[in-house]
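Narrative summary of target 7.
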Amino acid sequence: MKEIMKRIVLTLLLLWPLVGAPPPALAQSPELMAAHNRYNTLLAQGKYTEAEPFARNALELGKAEFGPDHKNYSILLNNLALLYIAQGHYAEAEPLHMRALGIRAARAARQPVGRPR
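Modeled conformation, tokenized:
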């Protein structure tokens, strides 16, 4: 089971940079981008403990800038959750993933069929 979890985590970590960066938005501050970029750099270097404060900071800034129900905020929630998973802190990751999923599900429910999400 541990080997399967490791493979899942590695796959998520490798694919996440393709979808994990918050898309450009008018409300996105330089502070948020700096925290997010530093998190990504440290994550790529395997410096998970050092990356955590930057992921938390980006999450706080994202909540303030986008609001707690915005898709960009859900991406930042997932970023911190993936960092916890990489460290084996699954209990801390689960509520973050569930919150992010809830945001995305609510957003999908509001979209008319056939429109991009």
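The helical segments are 2-19, 30-44, 48-66, 71-86, 90-110.
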